[in-house]
Amino acid sequence: MGVEICVEGLTKSFGHQVVWQDVSLTLPAGEVSVMLGPSGTGKSVFLKTLVGLLKPDRGSVTIAGRDITRLREHELYEVRKLFGVLFQDGALFGSMNLYDNIAFPLREHTRKSESEIRRIVLEKMDLVGLLGAERKLPGEISGGMRKRAGLARALVLDPEIILFDEPDSGLDPVRVAYLNQLIVDLNAQIDATFLIVTHDIASARQVPDNIGLLFRRELVVFGPREKLLTSDEPVVRQFLNGRMEGPIGMAEEKDAAQVEQELARLGDVDRKARHAGNDMTPRLLPGPGITRPPRWEAIARREAELHRKEAADA
Questions:
Q1: pLDDT the model gives residue 103
Q2: What is the CATH number of domain 5-82+159-313?
Q3: What are phi and psi of 68, to 5 degrees?
Q4: Among residues 127, 218, 106, 222, which one has the least CA distance to residue 181?
Q5: Which of 135, 194, 112, 197 is nearest to 160 (CA)?
Q6: Given this model, what pLDDT does residue 175 score?
């Protein structure tokens, strides 16, 4: 079972450049959360701060009852064992085959025998659909396979928290769809706490339980998926619909009067679309034979109630 992550008043800057400030949210245990935001809003910095690779200027990150911002290095090392991380490029060693890449954390951080390591590695490779590719080098396989190998490596220490740093980067839409299904299936099987940083709107609509959005050096909003998909917040509407009208510009800043004019031109199109239920993209479900965690039933009831409310308001 995953663990809850409670973030309070988190602020991070590099010199005089504030990345984000006063960020507060709770990542529920065992749920999938997505963090969105325009390029340059510090999403990857946020991930690195959660795992203790970067120290914030202010605020706390409480994991399993411990504020990691106040821990000494050897204490932080113990907390990091709760984490698995999938980096953008998979971060595989080019000179090692997939088996040795995935076995690396076990050899580095445990005293397990080679037979036990082999059992675990093959189990995780099977989980991500890579059995039979043990002897292949990273340079011999596709980007999608490299992502899955990186994910298998992130899983070998049985983490309770898994961080995904733009897992869809460099993948075509079909491979992104397969990866999204894999993430949903894994969460149902291991029930760890997942946090995904992504720009992919389709993924954000289909995969998570919760969605957050970073913009203009702050966390604009964080909450249940269905709440965000029906939000009236202009920056949320703009980002989720991938359009030019709204607060986000090429340089991330727009004049307030210009934003007001753009939103006025949209009229009530957005409102009608939401009331018609067009924004509630169906959630991805675990594949055949995979049991859904009990919390999924509560989420399904919550979404159904929202649909009924939207229909009544229309």
A1: 96
A2: 3.40.50.300
A3: -70, -20
A4: 127
A5: 194
A6: 86
Contact assessment for residue 32 and residue 228, using Cβ atoms and an 8 Å cutoff: no
Inter-residue contact 38 to 239 (CB < 8 Å): yes
Looking at residue 286, its pLDDT comes to 87
* Residue 274 scores a pLDDT above 60: no
Name the β-bridge partners of 27: 5
Mean pLDDT along residues 39-62: 92
**Torsion angle, alpha carbons of 149, 153, 154, 157, to 10:** 150
Residue with token string 């025998």: 113
| Tokens coding 66 | 């411990």
Boundaries of every domain in the chain: 5-82+159-313
Burial class, 88, CB count within 10 angstroms (exposed 0-12 / middle 13-18 / buried 19+): middle
Could you tell me the pTM of the whole model?
Answer: 0.85
Read off the tokens for 185: 């299936």
**Could you write out the DSSP letters of every residue in 181-247?**
HHHHHHHHHH--EEEEE---HHHHHHS-SEEEEEETTEEEEEEEHHHHHT---HHHHHHHHT-SSSS
Q: What is the 8-class DSSP label of residue 97? A: -
